């Protein structure tokens, strides 16, 4: 006996000579068939919609699970609080070293005096001035090369889930921040160690680890470019 499946004639095949064949137009107008087709289309559309919503919810949940603050370690004496006093008492003082993590959990050690000058910017996600300055600096760095021997570090600090533009991890990603960014602790230990008093706040540290500039407030392109050139090691 053959195991091949039997060929079943279509219900719409030719009838006996005593009857007439059903036309294509008649089959197309069958309300039951139309109903079945519409039902299948609706089910497929619903399935695609549910899949897209599930993917979006999973992505949002994944983003919300990124820790926005983390433990840090500070080594060295803290700088005095910056209040705009001239001369700044922090000038020529050794900047404290710190270890922190990026938003993806990568450990980052910032070691003033390691031979590389540093520009360290402190940003709060809810600060309107930070929201203007961060994308401006990101754009500048995308279009310009930093002087030799200079690196830029951003510190996300003063995180508050109840304030605007939260979470900061999404903000930095949205603005395509091109340099290192680390998470401060919930107690803002890095910011405190560097004497932060307002936002945005920028500290320039030379290659020997000495503080050579502290600025509170927004930096335009010209001021930013001056600062990164100012901290750069002198060639030769």
Could you describe the 3D structure shown?
With 236 residues, this protein is α/β, with parallel strands linked by helices. The chain has two domains: 24-64; 73-231, Glutaredoxin (3-Layer(aba) Sandwich), CATH 3.40.30. Helices cover 33% and strands 17% of the residues. The chain is built from six helices and eight strands; from the N terminus they run H-H-E-E-E-E-H-E-H-E-H-E-E-H. It has helices spanning 24-28, 31-64, 128-143, 168-174, 189-193, 221-231, and strands spanning 73-75, 97-101, 107-110, 117-123, 150-156, 180-183, 201-205, 211-216. The strands form two sheets. It has a five-stranded mixed β-sheet with strand order 6-5-4-7-8, with helices on one face. Strand 2 and strand 3 (107-110) form a beta hairpin. It is globular and about 45 Å long. It starts with 23 loop residues before the first helix and ends in a 5-residue tail after the last helix.
